[in-house]
Amino acid sequence: MNIVYFSKGIRGIACLEAVLQAGYAIVAVIGSGQDDELNTVCERNNLPLHMPEKPNTLEVAELLETFEADIFVCSGYNKILKPIIFNIPRLGTINLHGGRLPFYRGAAPTNWQIINGENEGGCCILFLDEGIDTGPIICQESYPITEDDNHQSIL
């Protein structure tokens, strides 16, 4: 299975490394803005890295089509993808989201779970649709949060 992986930040990179360790074929990585650690991971694993400023353009769609990916995977990516992009792969586009849905939609869900004093956090995998974290949920898991936890320890 060929994957195009969309990533930004430490959670996205941690998930990318887990996907690589599991043996999946990443054919390209799409990043956002300056991300030296993502660049390092891509160089170390010989992965092509692209950083489009505006990902929802015909030019980017045409580039993504050349990778012939079966699925797109997003984790930590900070841009909202439109149908012109997320409908490209035959299996769709999934998001590895760091919060329980529908309660923690949007950005920084891990941080918000800690800020709100949750004793139990969650994460889920869902398909992308035109909303923000509103697509069909594939799976959802819970985990304990202690008062000593922070964003890094939960990752």
From TrEMBL:
GO terms for cellular component: cytosol. SUPFAM superfamilies: Formyltransferase. Pfam families: Formyl_trans_N. Residues 51-153 form the Formyl transferase N-terminal domain. GO terms for molecular function: methionyl-tRNA formyltransferase activity. Transmembrane segments: none annotated. This is Formyl transferase N-terminal domain-containing protein.
